[in-house]
Amino acid sequence: MRKIYFILSILLFCMNLSALSRPESPAEKLPEQWRSYHATDRLNYTGKKLYDYIDGGAELYLSYGLTGMTGCKYNGEGLPQVTVEIYEMTDSKNAFGVYTQSRDKEESDYGQGSQSFPDFILFWKDRFFVIVNTQKVVPESQAAVQYLAKLIDESISETGDIPSIVNLLPKEGLAPAGFLYFHHYIWLNAYLFIADYNIINIDDRTDAVLAKYGEADARSYLLLVEYPNENKAIEAYKQLKDKYAPESTPADPLVQLEDKTWFTVWTKGNKLGAVFNGSSKGKTEELYKSTLINM
């Protein structure tokens, strides 16, 4: 009997220790009232239950390792509703990935990267991606959106690292906010259709970035993928090469396709790179070489 009591005591101690060490959720900082607004609906969704809240839009967050979404809806008499959504991902690179899928320009007013509109603020920080919005812009609702975004930003004490593969992108010619980070193949065709299947074996063990270069009327696309090992990179290289440029060689990697655009694919160590839709051989080669130097 004493042994059972001892084991139960240890279990209770561990449970309490775990609770004490658990980082506080930013949602716990959300007030019950702010000025004329009152919290009327607390949000809490985990895993695929997110489909109950945003049917058709949950796939984005689930593909980036969502652990849960918390938040709150605020209402006030005669005022438009304000909603806070805090998406917690498995790690900071996933929160950053969701952010790159969502923003149209880069700002730094909130978190580690943000975008603001009169009725809408989104940002990422550490492992969190945050959206605060209002149904209609009036002075009171706009002030509430800004206040709540700032409050959440300040309540997240840690910061996260941008995935290192993003740093391999050449800066020259990169379109503003013109890249997205991902590790699920469904996003491979986000900017440009490449294949209707997982042609380069992207999964949770790979880091990938797809970027836009040049003006809209002469746009090139750079794909970079980092694999767990060199063999995986070579395998993906062969599959992409066989589809687009079977006649290319390491000595002559640039190929003009039937639509008159230029293409090239290469590997370096455990990384794969490819340029699609090059407007000229010279520009494609320039992007290829500048990326290769970074790799």
Give a description of the structure.
The chain is of the alpha+beta class. It has 2 domains: 132 residues, Protein Transport Mog1p, Chain A, CATH 3.40.1000; 131 residues, Protein Transport Mog1p, Chain A (3-Layer(aba) Sandwich). The chain has 6 helices and 13 strands. Strands 1-2-3-4-7-6-5 form a 7-stranded antiparallel β-sheet. Strand 11 and strand 12 form a beta hairpin. The longest helix has 20 residues. The radius of gyration is 23 Å and the shape is elongated. The relative contact order is 0.09. The N terminus is likely disordered.
The helix/strand order is HEEHEEHEEEHEEEHEEEH
Strand content: 25-35%
CATH domain class of the largest domain: Alpha Beta
Distance between the termini: 63 Å
The overall number of domains is: 2
Tally of alpha and pi helices? 6
The radius of gyration over CA amounts to 23 Å
Task: Tag the structure with descriptive keywords.
seven-stranded antiparallel sheet, Protein Transport Mog1p, Chain A, 295 residues, alpha+beta, elongated, 31% strand
How would you briefly describe this protein structure?
The protein has 295 residues and is α+β, with helices and mostly antiparallel strands. The protein contains 6 helices and 13 strands. A hairpin with a 5-residue loop joins β11 and β12.
